[in-house]
Automatic annotation (TrEMBL):
Belongs to the NEMP family. Keywords: Membrane, Nucleus, Signal, Transmembrane, Transmembrane helix. This is Nuclear envelope integral membrane protein 1 isoform X1. It comes from Enhydra lutris kenyoni. The keyword Metal-binding does not apply. PANTHER family: AT07567P-RELATED, NUCLEAR ENVELOPE INTEGRAL MEMBRANE PROTEIN 1. The chain crosses the membrane at residues 113-130, 136-158, 165-184, 196-216, 236-260. It comes from the Eukaryota.
Amino acid sequence: MLQESEVHNLNHRQQFCYKNVLIPKWHDVWTRIQIRVNSSKLVRVTQVENEEKLKELEQFSIWNFFSSFLKEKLNDTYVNVGLYSPKTCLKVEIIEEDTQYNVTVTRRFDPKLFFIFLLGLMLFFCGDLLSRSQIFYYSTGMSVGIAASLLIVIFVLSKFMPKKSPIYVILVGGWSFSLYLIQLVLKNLQEIWRCYWQYLLSYVLTVGFISFAVCYKYGPLENERSINLLTWTLQLMGLFFMYSGIQIPHIALAIIIIALCTKNLEYPIQWLFITYRKMCKAAEKTVPPRLLTEEEYRIQGEVETRKALEELREYCNSPDCSAWKTVSRIQSPKRFADFVEGSSHLTPNEVSVHEQEYGLGSIIAEDEIYEETSTEEEDSDFPYPAITQQITS
């Protein structure tokens, strides 16, 4: 039986079991339990669920015989144990004599899980921005080209192969071999970089340039439906990373629900606000609007007319108004110029006609006209006796 923080040093084949007795708490969301097998030479490690499975491994069967050959042999092996897994067992087999190895169990904060969770948050909340970003488009295309160049080559070759050809069997094997090779390279990436960094750097630069050229040829996505599909794909990947980055399932589901509600919070709030307004309007009694009296109607008309005229004067004096273009379209340029300078917009004749037709006049407008008339009489020799008598009458 394995215990946490205990080291077991052995030099022969042995079976081990670890029993998890601690109940996960909320602060264990990014905690990982790992069993590490570190050896001086290659060893084969097989993980099972309980002691009964270990006994089945000791029995001879064709499946166990072939799986022993397919099982990877490593010097340093990590076995992940779930927080809710009650028991985990493993068998360590040595390949060569005089092989020393040690087995330890650790429970610690895993920064990889935290970064996976942050990546999921970024993809979910920024998926709509990333799907329209050219930087994201080219960087993703180059990364996919570098990481899965063999898969891309096999996919391109499959397009040129005739249908119902036996070469598809080889292509399927090529897919499987490519996936296995990618997994093997990722596991030994540090060792490959230390020993063959020149070849690795040449591969990254060459394949990265080719991938960039292909992305540049086809260009970023422009169709709105394609952009929406990419956005939804990124958001689904974000939800998957968020769930994978948290070790406690119910907390992961709660965070995903909160993220979904936060992302679409404006829609339920807007719906609740509209429903609340409709309920308030239905509960309120309809009050008929109060009608204006004749005096209020006259005063409001004068105030609004004066206000509109002042706004018109301000616009005509502003740089936005083309004075020459406006003057060319009107019949009385001098009257328009006097109005802009502050004169009344009505002539004495227009006020008289309005009085005759409607019997109502604007006292303020009449006073302005009288003042302008008296001023013009003093400055010029052209009187208006007929109009003055008519207005006075």
